[in-house]
Amino acid sequence: MTNQQQQLDRMFQALADGNRRAIIDRLSKSDAKVSDFAGQLGVSLPTVLQHLSVLEQAGLVSSRKVGRVRTCTLDTQALSRAEQWINERRNLWGRRLDALGVLLETDTGEQTHD
Amino acid sequence: MTNQQQQLDRMFQALADGNRRAIIDRLSKSDAKVSDFAGQLGVSLPTVLQHLSVLEQAGLVSSRKVGRVRTCTLDTQALSRAEQWINERRNLWGRRLDALGVLLETDTGEQTHD
Fold it and tell me: How many CB pairs (< 8 A) connect A and B?
């Protein structure tokens, strides 16, 4: 498996959990302290840390520690890559429908000449 | 957990596997028979059926059977929902950066008047 495939696996896996999506949702509005999430999600601090670890390994979130406080920030580059993968497949499908439209138009045109 | 959350869980979970992404990739170009995937992916037919089942449950792929041949097609509406979820979070982040830019500009403006 290539690195790129592994990265996509990890990103989509990280997004496949409501608590982890809630963390991303929160971080899209502003940076946040690790301790903020426990209250927001109604889960224990170890559970928050586990979710953050999955998000960090997927490259979706990074964190920095100042003194005893760890602050998290969203990495939108990784989020863009996941979005881009989906978007490219949707576009391919769209082009296929366009081509089908041209084909149908040509068919209709030919029928008119009959 | 709401239905919408469950649907997002299933969609991202379905996308978190290289073989399932390869099936989506293939279907973005044209519909395909179930038997086509075994050769393409180099896996057994039961494995293909298992992946297709995950994709169908996530609403990403649908299939129809004519005689003994089952043909699969991509459901781009579901793909759009996954893309939209990511896009909305990226946009929120973007607006936050814009707001920060305005704040910095205001600050610089104020300093000029000092």
Answer: 87
A61-100 pLDDT, tens digit each: 999 999 989 999 999 998 999 999 999 999 988 887 777 6
Query: A86 at the B interface (CB within 8 A)?
Result: yes
Q: Does A82 touch chain B (CB under 8 A)?
A: yes
Q: Which two tokens stand for residue B98?
A: 């814009």
Q: Tokens 């979820």 map to which residue?
A: B85
Tell me the ipTM for this assembly. Answer: 0.84
pLDDT value of position B110: 59
CA-based torsion, A76, A78, A83, A88: positive or negative: positive
Q: What is the mean pLDDT of residues B72-80?
A: 92
pLDDT of residue A113: 52
The answer to whether residue B1 neighbours chain A at the CB level (below 8 Å) is: yes
Buried-exposed string B81-91: b where 16+ CB fall within 10 A, e elsewhere: bbbebbbebbe
CA of B37, closest CA in chain A: separation in Å? Answer: 17
Tell me which residue of A53, A13, A30 sits closest to B95, measured CA to CA: A30
Assess B99–A contact: CB distance below 8 Å, yes or no.
no
* pTM score of the predicted model: 0.85
Token pair 């104020």: residue:
B110
CA distance B12 to A86: 11
Dihedral sign (CA B4, B6, B11, B16): positive
